[in-house]
Amino acid sequence: MKVIIAEKPDQGATLASIFRTKKRQGYIEILPNDLFPDGAYMTWAIGHLFQLAPPERYRPEWKRWTLGTLPIIPERFEYEIEKAKAKQFKVVKELLRKPEVTEIIHAGDAGREGELIVRNLIRLSGVNKPMKRLWLSSLTPKAIEEGFRRLLDERTTRPLYEEAYARACADWLVGMNASRVYSLLLKERGMNDVFSVGRVQTPTLALIVRREREIEQFRPEPFWEVVASFVIGDKRYEGKWTDKNGQTRLGDEEMAKKIAAFCQGKRAEVADVHTERKTYQPPLLFNLSTLQATANKLYRFSPKKTLDVLQSLYQKGIVSYPRSDSMHVTKGEAETFPAILQKLSSFPAYASYFPLPQPSILQNKRYVNEKKVTDHYAIIPTEQVVDPEKLSADERKVYDLVVRRLIAAHHQAAVIDYTTVTTLVDGRARFVSKGRQVVEEGWRAVIRPHEEEKDAALPLLERGEAGEAAAVKVKEGKTEPPKRYTEGELITLMKTAGKFLDDEELEKVLAKTEGLGTEATRAAIITMLKERKYIEVKNNLVYATDKAKVLIEALGGTILASPEMTAKWEQRLSEIGEGSASPAAFMEQVKKLAQKVVADAIAAAPNWNFRGVDTASIQRTRKKKTMGEKLGPCPLCGGTVVDKGTLYGCDQYAKTKCPFTISKRILGKSISAANVKKLLAQGKTNVIKGFKKGEKTFDAILVWDENEKKLSFQFPKR
After folding, report:
1. Are 264 and 469 spatial neighbours (Cβ–Cβ below 8 Å)?
2. Could you read off the pLDDT of 101-119 as tens digits, one per residue?
3. Of 59, 221, 355, 625, which one's alpha carbon is 20 to 30 angstroms from that of 430?
4. 382 exposed, middle or buried (CB, 10 Å; 0-12, 13-18, 19+)?
5. For residues 35 and 2, what is the distance between their CA atoms, to the nearest angstrom?
6. Given 3-state DSSP classes, what are the helix, strand and coil percentages for the chain, each rounded to the nearest 5?
């Protein structure tokens, strides 16, 4: 008999769905079959069942936040069970200890965190039985069956567990000490708030604050440009006056007016026509970061929302593993594309792109490159193709992006001619005109560019043609500050943080490790920065708060605010994951770093200067009395829905990223805790009167739709 342990309940249900089963409390019994002649038990964690123990677990005096107790450095790290999840741990432990159970199948997500979650559960259950590893990149029935038939030896992925464990302990050690020392020292300066400091979140925040300062310090300067409208025969076009250095902007308004007056009505001759043809290959397939950035640009989806929607599509078995960092596939996946595309061609949304110019990309190394596939291949639609019209609105948008990338990869390159025309007025004044002409639409017919193209097509002009400057005008403008990051650009910024390092070798490390954070954690880091009041997002633009400015100012040039530390850590952690470095040696270095962080902060504090920042406003807000009140079981993951102050949400979000939330205000109407309790217990609320939509008001019952996994309105009978 075997016990299979998944990472989450819905994942366990999906893995068991290809067998005949009986549902039990906390697990699923798989009946005897070809793969499991004696049957099997399918059970699950609920994300992280365990968390690293708090400081007071090691020493009672570490509970109080005082400078005298720092640094906090446990001799060995301990885990403790989350109270809300103790029941599920008991179920798993009892299954593992059954005498008839002779083997364990680790079926957590195929990555570092999945490795850590399930191995921790097994280790803390006190069971030591033979183990195999299920490693999947999609959850289609075919992929699940093939995965169970080719289980990995657990030793293959054990270094990933050691890497994840070292990462978690190191982050705890530095985060705990840095957060306490800066919070205590800043409290002495009148700011009674918790200042969270972390290896990834803080360098990311430093980049945001840097941009905030650039915007604040920017002073706009006026400039003027001279624009002429040329008429040559029946051809009309515009050009900008340009000096010998290629500059179009003038800092002197009078000079601009003199140039315009001089050129008005004068003879204009085409001095030069230069056309450059550029070929654009179809874009690479998506990894998580590029998909998050694209969804944010097109639909203003937050990175977290994109990941949540993608996870939903993955659980349905219609896209591959969502947290992939690769933009390539292996030959095995490429061989499935013709069948997938054939199914997609039957849907009206995609029918016009078929037949495909390139029926197969199997030999195209731009997409099919096994050397560039890490733990997972690119995000692609699986053979379990669905009509996008049958998905929810958000799922349809994300699925459509994934599908179009795959279709575009089978189309020709786009070819565009860029033309530059130089026109001389009165033989002296030089004007430049730019235009573009699409020669071959290619893949752009499938994926339209996100921005409008600036340059329109120019008329067909030849050198020596002459006419006149029919109208010449002066345009005034002002220099603009750097633009704020969008949430999508923040994801890209985290990936490319290496360009902010002066050390070339460390820059290479961050480039190799894909910058700050991982595909799986970047969305959570951005969400964390919001929740901790370091950033605000307005109209999809990211603003640094005064609290963020204070922290980054206090950190100054320390390594905590630089991508440098992350680069060094990622280098060593990846070596641990590859089995070539010692976790113990790494942790000894981290302990020394924790001591240095505390000492450096105390030494620097007397010189902190927060001029220009509203430090008085940085105070901890008191939680409402209802905060933390338990309201009922989460319908998505089995966790507990609690009052979170501004909304009702699942208490497992920090660990599993469970997306279940209910706003406290819907269409202008407050939603009471009593109604949420009834919704969670019975599937619907009482009649709530006074919802407002535009000028209309209506009464309705809030209902949990089990199929769509979302709230909907039910209207009472009159």
Report:
1. yes
2. 999 999 998 888 889 999 9
3. 221
4. buried
5. 11
6. 40, 25, 40
Q: What is the mean pLDDT of residues 228-246?
A: 95
Confidence of residue 700 (pLDDT cuts 50, 70, 90): confident
Considering the entire predicted model, what is its pTM? 0.77
- Residue 321 buriedness (CB in 10 A; 0-12 / 13-18 / 19+): buried
If one counts every other C-beta atom within 10 angstroms of the C-beta of residue 213, the result is: 14
At residue 197, the pLDDT reads 94
Distance CA 679, CA 23 (A): 24
Q: What is the pLDDT of residue 510?
A: 47
DSSP secondary structure string, 141-210?
A: HHHHHHHHHTPEEHHHHHHHHHHHHHHHHHHHHHHHHHHHHHHHHHHTTT--S-----TTHHHHHHHHHH
**CA–CA gap between residue 624 and residue 601 (Å, rounded):** 33
Is the dihedral angle over the CA atoms 618, 622, 626, 632 positive or is it negative?
A: positive
- Whether 399 is a known active-site residue: answer no
CA-closest candidate to residue 406, choices 448, 378, 435 = 378
The encoded tokens of residue 66 equal 């005082």
Backbone dihedral angles phi then psi of residue 535, each to the nearest 5 degrees: -135, 155
Residue 358, C-beta contacts closer than 8 angstroms, at least 6 positions apart: 364, 410, 411, 412
| DSSP string computed for 392-403 | -HHHHHHHHHHH
CB-CB contact of 231 with 468 (8 Å): yes
Q: What are the DSSP E strand ranges found in 25-84?
A: 27-30, 40-44, 50-52, 79-81
Q: Which CATH number fits domain 288-410: 1.10.290.10, 1.20.1260.10, 1.10.3660.10, 1.40.20.10?
A: 1.10.290.10
CATH number of 222-280+416-478: 2.70.20.10
- Tell me the residue ranges of DSSP E strands in 7-112: 21-24, 27-30, 40-44, 50-52, 79-81, 103-107
CA Rg, the chain, in Å? Answer: 30
Pairing of β 630-633 and β 414-425: unpaired
CB 43 within 8 A of CB 27: yes
Fold classification of 2-150 (topology level): Rossmann fold (3.40.50)
* Residue 232 · residue 225 · CB < 8 Å: no
Instruction: Provide φ and ψ at 239, rounded to 5°.
Output: -150, 155
> Which residues touch 124 (CB under 8 Å, ≥6 apart)?
50, 79, 81, 89
Name the active-site residue from 27, 79, 314, 321: 321
* Topology, domain 166-217+483-617: Topoisomerase I; domain 2 (1.10.460)
Query: Which tokens sit at 548?
Result: 């963020």
Distance CA 337, CA 346 (A): 15
Residue 482: strand pairing partners:
none
Name every residue whose Cβ is closer than 8 Å to that of residue 400 and which is 6 or more positions away in sequence: 349, 388
Among 281, 453, 478, 251, CA closest to 367: 281
Q: Are 631 and 642 a contacting pair, CB within 8 Å? A: yes
Query: For residue 265, is it left (φ>0), alpha (ψ between -120 and 50) or beta?
Result: left
Q: How many CB atoms lie within 10 A of CB 377?
A: 26
Backbone angles phi, psi at 38, to 5 degrees: -95, 5
Domain ranges of the chain: 2-150, 166-217+483-617, 222-280+416-478, 288-410, 629-714
